[in-house]
């Protein structure tokens, strides 16, 4: 089986500038290479015409109905009563601070290789943009042990224990969300061959991306994370109480956004929304994104029950998850169009 790193390593040339960190704390003025023109054209949570992202209580009997509405309108919602213990979220946050507070030289020991997927470095999609990002990132796929040992040779188990506990909790929550999201489309777990009866995905592909957005002297000109859609089925994001583009944070809530794969399965009904991260003048923002998706050999196609021409013709051809990830790695925002029926 091909690993995600092999899949993501495709032919787009990786630009080392995109993973070279700068000393954000000492910079008083944003260098030209970090200034994004036309940034004000993108929406932000301060825009008056932006609908607030709904907050959904997972135990509410109306949860699936509310999810459907949110997924059809914007592809993003927040969840409460999600079952992830608050003490775990706080432990996770402090481990992520600990990682990003390490001296640069230490973090660079785990620098992601130009064609790699895990370790210290910005999201792969940043290489599709000419400007640099006001952020640092770290991606974990599978066990964190190898990198944690390089970061803290004497004391790596604390980090690993917390990450592993979070990965377990996230996979339970992801199973629960899979059932709810399928139900919200009028589907059951029987409608997708790679989903088990309780929503678990055998051989699920998941990854954690830790993002750090330091305070920025010119937040209206710099970009935290460049616009993109996630390639996942869906992504669950924990953030340390500071806003996320159009999302006004609700205490204790997690943000869920629809990924490209759920968009394909829903035959285009659910929006895989383009999102980005903003930066702030005073606050240092952290986010931890958990990407969840089917195994690489899973066949992806619109669910049969959602194909009903002429109103709902089939929008996408069948691809394996592996094929889709390779197309996305090479063609980025054109990927969905490339698998769309004419
Ligand atoms: O920092 C955020 O809230 C967004 C993170 C995100 O979109 C990603 O890591 O794909
Ligand atoms: Fe994302």
Automatic annotation (TrEMBL):
Residue ranges of domain Fe2OG dioxygenase in the record: 203-294
UniProt xrefs under Gene3D superfamilies: B-lactam Antibiotic, Isopenicillin N Synthase, Chain
Cofactor entry: L-ascorbate
Top-level class of the enzyme under EC nomenclature: oxidoreductase
Protein name: gibberellin 3beta-dioxygenase
GO BP terms, alphabetized: gibberellin biosynthetic process
InterPro entries for this protein: DIOX_N, IPNS-like_FE2OG_OXY, IPNS-like_sf, Iron_ascorbate_oxido_reductase, Oxoglu/Fe-dep_dioxygenase_dom
One MF term in the entry's GO annotations: metal ion binding
Keywords: Dioxygenase, Iron, Metal-binding, Oxidoreductase
The enzyme's E.C. designation: 1.14.11.15
Domain of life: Eukaryota
Family: Belongs to the iron/ascorbate-dependent oxidoreductase family.
């Amino acid at each position: 089986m091909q690993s995600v790193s092999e899949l993501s390593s495709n032919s787009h040339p990786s630009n080392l500038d995109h993973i070279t960190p700068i000393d954000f704390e000492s910079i008083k003025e944003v260098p030209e290479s970090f200034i994004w023109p036309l940034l004000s054209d993108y929406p932000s949570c301060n825009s008056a015409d932006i609908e607030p992202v709904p907050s959904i209580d997972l135990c509410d009997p109306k949860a699936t109905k509310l999810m459907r509405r949110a997924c059809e309108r914007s592809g993003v919602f927040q969840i409460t009563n999600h079952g992830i213990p608050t003490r775990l979220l706080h432990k996770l946050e402090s481990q992520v601070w600990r990682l990003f507070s390490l001296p640069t030289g230490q973090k660079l020991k785990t620098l992601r290789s130009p064609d790699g997927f895990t370790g210290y470095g910005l999201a792969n999609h940043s290489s599709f943009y000419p400007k640099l990002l006001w952020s640092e990132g770290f991606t974990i796929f599978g066990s964190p042990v190898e990198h944690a040992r390089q970061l803290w040779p004497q004391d790596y188990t604390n980090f690993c224990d917390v990450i592993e506990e979070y990965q377990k909790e996230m996979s339970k929550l992801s199973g629960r969300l899979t059932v709810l999201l399928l139900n919200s489309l009028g589907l059951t777990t029987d409608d997708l061959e790679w989903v088990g009866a309780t929503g678990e995905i055998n051989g699920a592909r998941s990854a954690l991306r830790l993002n750090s957005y330091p305070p920025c002297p010119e937040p209206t000109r710099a970009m935290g994370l460049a616009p993109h859609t996630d390639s996942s089925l869906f992504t669950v994001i924990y953030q340390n109480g500071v806003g996320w583009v159009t999302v006004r944070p609700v205490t204790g809530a997690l943000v869920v956004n629809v990924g490209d794969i759920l968009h394909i399965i829903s035959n285009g009904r659910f929006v895989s929304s383009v999102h980005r991260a903003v930066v702030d003048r005073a606050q240092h923002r952290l986010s931890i994104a958990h990407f969840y998706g089917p195994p690489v050999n899973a066949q992806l196609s619109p669910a049969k029950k959602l194909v009903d021409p002429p109103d709902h013709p089939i929008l996408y051809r069948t691809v394996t998850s592996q094929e889709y990830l390779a197309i996305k790695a090479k063609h980025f925002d054109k990927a969905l169009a490339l698998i769309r029926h004419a």
